[in-house]
Amino acid sequence: MNKRLLLAHRPEGLPTEDTWKLDVQPIPEPGEGQLVVRNHYVSLDPAMRIWIKDVRSYLPPVQLGDVMRGGTIGEVIASKHPTFKEGMYVSGWGGIQQYTLTDGQGMFAVDPSLVPLPTYIGGLGMPGLTAYFGIFDVCKIKEGDVVLISGGAGAVGSVAGQIAKIKGCYVVGIAGGPEKCAYMKDELGFDDVIDYKNENIYAGIKRSCPKGMDVYFDNVGGEILDAALARLKLGARIAICGAISQYNSDDFYGPKNYSNLINVRGTMQGFLVLDYGKRYGEAVAQMGQWMAQGKLKTREAIYEGIENFNDTFLRLFNGDKKGKLVLKVIED
Ligand code: NAP
Q: For residue 245, which atom of ligand 1 is closest to its CA?
């Protein structure tokens, strides 16, 4: 049988168990031109909280009663598709369910012998690609830049910071708690760290970037963005990657201190990884090489059971996870 997670209610604030309905259906059969994927892992991403709001965004909202949208990696178990054959592993938007029936649109084959499967929805998947295009194309990093990254221990931020280090920048990561800060400094090689849960963020940025930043890679928005806006160097670039601190609120908090962009002739630019589809190959090849050379490290926080979706999803917002959040949905 195929266990599927449907959107049952639109939550106010943090999602709860009754936001979702677990539904069980027979495993689908492929028609002509279709394939069925047995999903091993699904990706849990902050943007899911936006997709379940009934608001206009870059993708249509998930409708009540629909399978929750989500990135997946799994094995083709049945196929009448010309390209995707039984036994291949594919990644794509399979949804939060154990089996996906698809015509292959948006699916791409991966090689499970190169990296562990969850890495294809982590460091070599959407979060890694976001970091790559954000740090190169939006932040336009140069050797010697002072680069500040919020969500620095997370899926996107940890990769963005390591790429900036590889390119000779001075990197400061912001994260919540001593353990994540030690990870950024000792494991990822960041130059300095700020524990925003235990240090005033304005004081922390002043301490770690005394002359200001050339680049701020923003994953969280809110007051941390305010504090970063106040300490920019001439010509600074801010990449608005995400605003997780605001996703559970209906009253988005807008930035203060943005007029400092005038003083420093700075730019603040939002971007979406989905716009870089034609260049994913370039990014995966480069990041795969850095991983093989030991220059780029990623880690996944893997939890088990589609029944545990909501509790696991909440870890994105309370920070109780280490690395890219992944849910194993395959049952042995
Ligand atoms: P992640 O960083 O692995 O996980 C989310 C982290 O956010 C948590 O672990 C927590 O870390 C931090 N956080 C949660 N609430 C916070 C708050 N109120 N203030 C400060 N930090 C908070 O998630 P991710 O997948 O890498 O995503 C990071 C950001 O990138 C998200 O905003 C996401 O929407 C965005 N994103 C954008 C694109 C794009 O195309 N633009 C693509 C992918 C992701 P701490 O324990 O350190 O607090």
A: 18
Residue 239 identity (one-letter amino acid): A
Query: 122 is written with which tokens?
Result: 């982590």
- What tokens appear for 61 in the block? 């909202």
CB 49 less than 6 A from any atom of ligand 1: no
Ligand 1 neighbourhood includes 202 CB (under 6 angstroms): no
Residues 83, 118: Cα–Cα separation, whole Å:
23
d(CA 10, CA 298): 33
CB atoms under 10 Å from CB of 329, counted, come to 27
- Three-state secondary structure of 292-306: HCCCCCCCEEEEECH
Among 94, 95, 77, CA closest to 86: 77
pTM as predicted: 0.97
Q: Which two tokens stand for residue 181?
A: 């800060």
Distance CA 274, CA 277 (A): 6
Q: Is the Cβ atom of 154 under 6 angstroms away from ligand 1? A: yes
| Residue type for position 177 | G
- Kindly report, residue by residue over 13-49, the tens digit of the pLDDT: 999 999 999 999 999 999 999 999 999 999 999 999 9
**Cβ 271 vs Cβ 137: under 8 Å:** yes
Among 49, 193, 220, say which to mutate for ligand 1: greatest number of ligand atoms within 8 Å of CB: 220
Question: What would the pLDDT profile of 250-303 be if each residue is shown by its tens digit?
Answer: 888 989 999 999 999 999 999 999 999 999 999 999 999 999 999 999 999 999
Residue 245, ligand 1, Cβ within 6 A: yes
For ligand 1, is residue 107 a contact (CB within 6 Å)? no
